[in-house]
Structures are given as structure tokens and as C-alpha cells.
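Table S2 (text version). Query chain:
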Amino acid sequence: MLFSHVSRWASSAAIIVCSVTAYTPASTAKTDQLAAQGLVNLYNWEKQHYTRGQSCQINNGYVRQEWTNLTQTQKTAFTDAVLCMMQKPSKTPKSLVPGARSRYDDFVATHINQTLTIHGTANFLTWHRYYVYTFETALRNECGYNGYIPYWNWGKSAFDPINSPYFDGSAGSMSGNGVYEPHNATVALPTGLNPIPPGQGGGCVTTGPFKNITVNLGPVAATLAEPEVVPGPMMGLGYNPRCMKRDISPWVTSQWSTDDDTYDLIANNGSNIYWFQTVMQGLFDQGFYGVHTAGHFTFGGDPGGDIFTSPGDPMFWLHHAQIDRVWWIWQNQNIDARLNQVSATITINNQPPSRNGTLQDKVDLGVNAPPVAMSNLVSTIAGPFCYIYL
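Corresponding C-alpha cell output:
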């Protein structure tokens, strides 16, 4: 493991607001080179393991692309499909989730219900891989979307997220920052270390494709320090309509979302998936966010800053597509050794203490998809999947 972040914490403390309006993406060359080499490795591995009649091959799989590589038409098609999911009626029985009003809420409710058994657990990566894929499938089958989930290469926007094409509030963004509302520091980590200084947002998002959307569920464990942001009814499963709030934080991104951070995660955690997924999710007793927690608290707010209700912010899907991509890159560096690795228990950070997870454990997404064993979710070119990242 490589922890070279202490000095950056000090140097980044002043990066609370971004004063530069002309956005320049940072280089992601180091991680992208690992991805390219990994794809070559995967191609060679497939040739050695190809089985006659195998339906999925790299050459006929679909490709997930980075957000900034999409055309405006492709971006609009994606955001329109997400908005469509917010209009489709819920399939979840009201007896289970009284607050669900849409198909989008079905996915948020599933995450709320399973949060304590899908983070800091053996199934963290497989569960979220299947979850993102299932949402992608719903966009295509239920809302006529012809594309695939794009990913957010965090390093590109690490030094200027507010003015980036992800959050600049344009029609081609994933919507902008919230309007400014006075608020206190965000205590993002359960240890209370390294609270996030208040940023320029905190209020409702009023720009971009998701302006004025209604969030129906949660929060459960809100972190946005505003008086009106309080836990929703019925442990977040009751009806609690409100605006989507964000507080975009260059303070977070400049410390834990750079290309160096992602490269170090992949290259310097060996072939042990336990340390790979643990460092990815964060070392909270050290105040270290990790790329996973940092991604969520890049935009934070409500519902994005609540571990339970975070899918309520549509940026969740691009973030977790990148989480999946980083795992895919890590796997592809040594496929035989890393493809079928699983580690940790079945409860969040082993609290309460529980048994070790296994590849035979099922991932169950409720009304959204049938249960699938983790063993069928470890490869993006096998099981229900057939995709790669470019």
C-alpha cells in the first residue's frame, strides 16, 4: 500500500473554493495506461480460455465510455432515460416501501434496505457491479435508452470539479452545484476525522438536466449540516419529497480523487483483494477517504452524502461505473490470480461479527432483478455481463 497523502492534506487545505472558471481536465494517463494494458491482458486471457459456443467475447461485447467522450446527443439520451425512470411507477409493494413513487425509487429503496450488508463486506464490488448493470438494463428495456452507463474518471476533474463538464450545470452535465446555503462542515467519516469544510453550495440543484427533481426517500444517515436535513420517516423508506442538494468539494477531490490516487490503489495494493477493496472504500481511522468515499462526497449534499440514500443523486451511477472500472482494471493486471478473489465478511466492517463471504453467496436486488451468485458476477465478459471499458 502507498499512503502519500499526509503532505497533500496540508497543501490542499486551502482548496475550498475554485477561483478558476476556465476548466482544464487533469491528466489520467497513469490509470488509463493500466486500463489499456489490462485490456490487452484480457484479450490474451480470453483466447486461452475461449469455449466453443461461448456467447460473449470481447469483440462482441458492448463498451462503457467516459462521460466526456460522449456526444451531446448521447449525454442527453442518458439523462433523459434517467428522468424517464423517475416517472415510471414503482414496482415495490407499498407495504415494504411506502415512500416509493417511481422505478427510480425502487433502486434507491433496494440500496437503503441492504446498505449494512453491501459496504465493507465481501460482496461490495460484486453487488454494486450487478446493481449498476441492472439499472443500465432497466434504462434500456423500460425507457428506450440505446446506450450504456457512462463512467466518471475522477482524476479528470480532481482539481476543478465545479467547473468540470460533470458539474458545470450545462445541458451536457450531470447538473451543477447546489445554490449556496449557509451550513457547517460535513462530518463524512464515521470516525469524525477530516470533516469537509463548507463549500459554495449546500442548497437545491437548479441547473442542468436534473434541476428541480424530487427526491422521495431518505435520508437515513444525513451528513449535510443544515437544520432542515433530518432523517426521513420509517428509516428512510417513508415518503419525504424534497429537492436534491449538493455541496461540491474541491477539498475532497484534490486529496483523494486524483489520477495518482487511483493509480496507487491499483498498482500498490498487490494481488490481495481485501486490501484493494478496503483502501478503495477508505481507512476511516486514519482520516483517509479512499476513492469510493471521496467520489460520493465530491458532490455530497442530500441524498448524495447519505450512505443509505446515495443513489438518489444520479451522479451515483457514473461514480459506481468508475468503481467497477477500477476493479476491472485491477483484475486485468493478473486475471488468473485476481478474477475469483473474495474477502471480508457479510456485515459492514464486520459489525456485528459475521461469517466470511463466499462466491456462493447470492446478490439479491429485490424487484429489480433475480438473485445471482457472486461467482457469476466476477467477470464482465461472463455470467449476465458482456462489456468492457474504454
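Notes on Table S2: The longest strand covers residues 202-205. Residues 29-49 form the longest helix (21 residues).
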